[in-house]
């Protein structure tokens, strides 16, 4: 990234420069704190070797020079000269003119509806376990769509845990390292029946919630039982467009979720159905009618409108135009971002067998592995 025309501003408290044709400003303290030199960052692991208190509070930039893709700065009172890569500066620039609308998502996130059915991201077990590039494509699809399918997996119990270990670790819960999804007598969860299930995110009563779920098919000879996925981020987009107040209520007030289905297990959480970051980024969706507890954090004057927004949110989730429906075959599985994509199933007959297994994992491992693959240049 070409660096040019550096100019000190505010008496050296900041510098203004051009990166690839765009003008940006950076504060001296920010630049000093984020220096990449070996005295500031460990060459081995990249961790910071200094604290904020090691940086003089009156730090200023005394001199700024640009040469090709490098910005060179001299900081006072330390008298140190530190170089900055233009590409790194461009990736971490924070001088933006316009605030983003609440509910925004990063560029790598693609919202979708039922039309994704013709473009479902799919990779085979053989490919992802022998070709790191194929694994990267699958993980990138999860980041982009919050959902992906894998075919030709072994139908041995526990294989889905091996899938999770391709990029991270299994999140063990009170349901076990993995859990069986098939009809049971007196189940401790409605998932273990042949009833249809409304689209939902799993375990919203946990804090933190498992951020990934894998569901793998070992047997499926029943009538019905089709799997359904819905992009919660696209649903939020529709809700916000038609009912801004409802969006504000569901994102501005906490819902409560609870689970009491097993002896000795009492799980509780307090989080909004639509979660936004401090800068308005759409971070997560939590929706699970079975686990919703009494809402006690909404003011009396807002409760009627809150419930109207909740009801409309549910209607949009149930809209067939939002659904991608498919029937898993033995040896097939799918993964969902459990903070974004809701999943459901249709009811199925009492004859035949439908045996799925599920497990949880987390996005930190997936994103870490994906970033490493990208840095290797395999997805260019």
TrEMBL record:
GO terms for biological process: carnitine biosynthetic process. One of its GO terms (molecular function) is iron ion binding. Transmembrane segments: none annotated. Residues 127-360 form the TauD/TfdA-like domain. Gene3D superfamilies: 3.30.2020.30, Clavaminate synthase-like. It comes from the Bacteria. Its cofactor is Fe(2+); L-ascorbate. Keywords: Dioxygenase, Iron, Metal-binding, Oxidoreductase. InterPro entries: AlphaKG_dependent_hydroxylases, GBBH-like, GBBH-like_N_sf, TauD-like_sf, TauD/TfdA-like. Belongs to the gamma-BBH/TMLD family. PANTHER family: GAMMA-BUTYROBETAINE HYDROXYLASE-RELATED, OXIDOREDUCTASE AIM17-RELATED. This is Gamma-butyrobetaine dioxygenase. It comes from Aestuariivirga litoralis. The lineage of its organism: Bacteria, Pseudomonadati, Pseudomonadota, Alphaproteobacteria, Hyphomicrobiales.
């Amino acid at each position: 990234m070409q660096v040019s025309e550096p100019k000190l501003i505010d008496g050296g408290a900041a510098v203004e420069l051009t990166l690839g044709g765009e003008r940006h400003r950076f504060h001296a303290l920010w630049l000093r704190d984020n220096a990449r030199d070996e005295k500031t960052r460990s060459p081995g692991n990249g961790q910071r070797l200094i604290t904020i208190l090691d940086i003089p509070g009156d730090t200023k930039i005394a001199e700024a020079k640009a040469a090709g893709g490098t910005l060179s700065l001299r900081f006072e009172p330390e008298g140190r000269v530190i170089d900055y890569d233009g590409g790194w500066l461009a990736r971490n620039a924070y001088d933006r003119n316009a605030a983003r609308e609440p509910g925004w998502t990063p560029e790598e996130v693609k919202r979708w509806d039922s039309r994704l059915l013709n473009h479902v991201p799919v990779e085979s077990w053989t490919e992802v376990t022998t070709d790191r590039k194929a694994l990267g494509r699958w993980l990138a699809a999860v980041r982009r769509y919050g959902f992906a399918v894998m075919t030709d997996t072994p139908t041995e119990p526990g294989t889905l845990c091996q899938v999770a270990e391709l990029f991270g670790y299994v999140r063990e819960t009170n349901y076990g390292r993995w859990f069986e999804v098939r009809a049971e007598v007196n189940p401790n969860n409605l998932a273990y029946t042949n009833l249809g299930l409304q689209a939902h995110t799993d375990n919203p009563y946990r804090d933190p919630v498992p951020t990934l779920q894998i569901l793998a098919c070992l047997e499926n000879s029943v009538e019905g039982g089709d799997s359904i996925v819905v992009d919660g981020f696209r649903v939020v987009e529709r809700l916000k467009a038609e009912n801004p107040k409802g969006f504000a209520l569901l994102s501005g007030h906490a819902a409560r979720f609870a689970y009491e289905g097993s002896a000795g297990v009492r799980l509780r959480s307090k989080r909004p159905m639509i979660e936004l970051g401090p800068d308005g980024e759409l971070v997560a969706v939590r929706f699970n009618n079975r686990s919703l507890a009494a809402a006690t954090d909404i003011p009396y004057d807002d409760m009627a409108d809150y419930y109207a927004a909740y009801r409309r949110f549910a209607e949009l989730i149930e809209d067939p135009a939002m659904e991608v429906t498919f029937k898993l075959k033995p040896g097939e599985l799918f993964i969902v971002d459990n903070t974004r994509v809701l999943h459901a199933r249709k009811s199925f007959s009492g004859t035949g067998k439908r045996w799925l297994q599920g497990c949880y994992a987390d996005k930190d491992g997936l994103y870490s592995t994906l970033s490493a693959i990208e840095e290797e240049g395999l997805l260019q």
